[in-house]
Amino acid sequence: MTPIDLGMDWIVSKRKDFIGRRSLFRSDTARSDRKQLVGLLTETPDVVLPEGSQIVESDTPPGATRMQGHVTSSYFSASLDRSIALALVQGGRSRIGDIVPVVAAEGAFVAARVVAPVFLAPEGTRQNG
């Protein structure tokens, strides 16, 4: 499976040559278990995850579990009236809908649901009017 098969066909030309084309089609780039950009919604809507927080395999004490990814950005959305976050998660697209433990401040675990990385008008109604 190539990155174009993974939903990037709208951004990448199939006919033109471009810088980075060879890298885009390398087998390592197409691995399904590589880290992929996803959205996170905390189970408690007012909890904003600290940027850089680790997403781990299980909510056992830190050090006893494998890291699955990390939070890249996190904010409170006034439009959605809840916290939202973006994260790089191992095999992220295949994990949409899963609940993952995130190690937040001072080693506390926060449960977050893996979602698509588009939070507001994913069908493009606001942009396309």
Give a written overview of the molecule.
The chain has 129 residues and is mostly beta strands. It has two domains: 1-31, no CATH class; 32-119, Elongation Factor Tu (Ef-tu), domain 3 (Beta Barrel). The protein has two helices and six strands; from the N terminus they run αββββββα. The protein has helices at 21-24, 125-128; strands spanning 35-42, 54-56, 67-77, 82-90, 99-103, 109-115. The chain has a six-stranded antiparallel beta barrel. Strand 3 (67-77) and strand 4 form a beta hairpin. The longest helix has 4 residues, at 21-24. The chain is flat and about 50 Å long.
**Measured distance between first and last alpha carbons:** 33 Å
What are the segments in which pLDDT stays under 50 over at least 5 consecutive residues? Answer: none
What pattern of helices and strands is seen along the backbone? Answer: HEEEEEEH
CATH architecture of the largest domain: Beta Barrel
Counted by DSSP, the helix tally is: 2
Nearest-angstrom radius of gyration? 16 Å
How are strands sequenced across the largest beta sheet?
1-4-3-2-5-6
Biggest sheet descriptor = 6 strands, antiparallel, barrel
- Structural class computed from helices and strand pairing: mainly beta
CATH top level of the largest domain is: Mainly Beta
Q: State mean pLDDT (0 to 100 scale).
A: 83
Percent range for β-strand residues: 25-35%
Give me the CATH fold name of the largest domain.
Elongation Factor Tu (Ef-tu), domain 3
The CATH homology group name of the largest domain: Aminomethyltransferase beta-barrel domains
